[in-house]
Design goal:
Elements lengths: L1 H4 L4 H19 L10 H32 L12 H25 L1 H11 L14 H6 L1 H11 L3 H19 L4 H6 L5 H8 L5 H8 L20 H5 L23 H6 L26 E6 L2 E5 L23 E5 L3 E6 L13 H4 L17
Antiparallel strand pairs: 1-4, 2-3
The structure holds FE2/S2 (inorganic) cluster.
FE2/S2 (inorganic) cluster (FES) binds next to loops.
Length: 373
Amino acid sequence: MTELLNNPSTGKYFVLLTILIFGAIETFGGHYKNTSRTKDDWIMEWGGFFLVSFSSFLALYGVIAFGKILLPASFNAYANLSLWIAVPVYMFADDLAQYWYHRSAHEYDFLWKHHRPHHAAEEMGIMVSFRNSFVYYLFIPNVWIAATFTFLGMIPATIIGLFVKQLVVFTSHSTVKWDEYVYKIKLLSPIMWVVERIFVTPAFHYAHHGKSKADGISDPNGNFGNAFTVWDQLFGTATFTRKYPLEFGLQTDPKDGWAPHLFYPFITSDKVGSEIAKDFKRVSTATMDAAEIELEAGTHLWCQCGFSKNQPFCDGAHHGTKIKPIAFKVKKKRKVKLCNCKHTKTGPFCDNTHLEFGNTPLPKVGKKATVHS
Ligand code: FES
């Protein structure tokens, strides 16, 4: 056991073994019988697995080689640190860094394009956790943090931390929704309240993969946590519903192939309008007037970013910006006046702010506008 915990390769074997176990459970559970997964999906998922393995290998040997030259006294310096300290320190450092990296991948255009394959998945499953581009995995802080802790001599702590983290990550992506069974037992509800406020559950992470906020369950611009939900609660991005979205994927999906998904910007998409096409540009579709329309009863998603091609409604073009759509309910069919300049202070409704701009060009959305969460 001691030997296993001191071998940096144990973490990789463990990840592979867990994939095989969960893969078998999903397969025998009938998940892949009626799957809509395409060949491109499979290539993307296994391709991502090899890319992150390559990135981990690069980080590990790079950090150890350069560390020994630049900071020789630090090599194995913390090998005797108690596991009671080293494991929590590793896990919290790893998860906090992942929270901000993941959140940035939704809020900044450059990173979004590399995280987009993850959200193009129309089905859940453990292999979905590996759908990211090569560039995303190259800069992902986790592999560099694991390599640094290994360099410092905290190999057992890194392996134990990785074990717990991967277990949470795999179960929160898996079609085996363990929490669904527990939620049905009323007596366990208070315990689950505590569990879901610490660890990411399938319900919590499924909401992040849901197609759109209009279903009242999903929040693709929230629930960013990897292993712990504490960061989302601390930074105001957590939503707990104990429900599971019915639709996953991108709101507007041009169906890019596996190659541009994994290797953008070295390979770009040939699909018109794709965010990873060579000539893609985010163009403002906001206008200096209101949209007066009749809406059916139900939930609608108003575009606040001003980039949707389906104004005044959201089409998912806000990904890669800090601006989110606003979901609003209409009880019965009625006429509404929705803001189309995207500077209203009473979103989604027009408050005539556009009249204040007169003949001046429309200010950039998000600059002067109030951004609602
Ligand atoms: S497209 Fe979603 S907020 Fe604009």
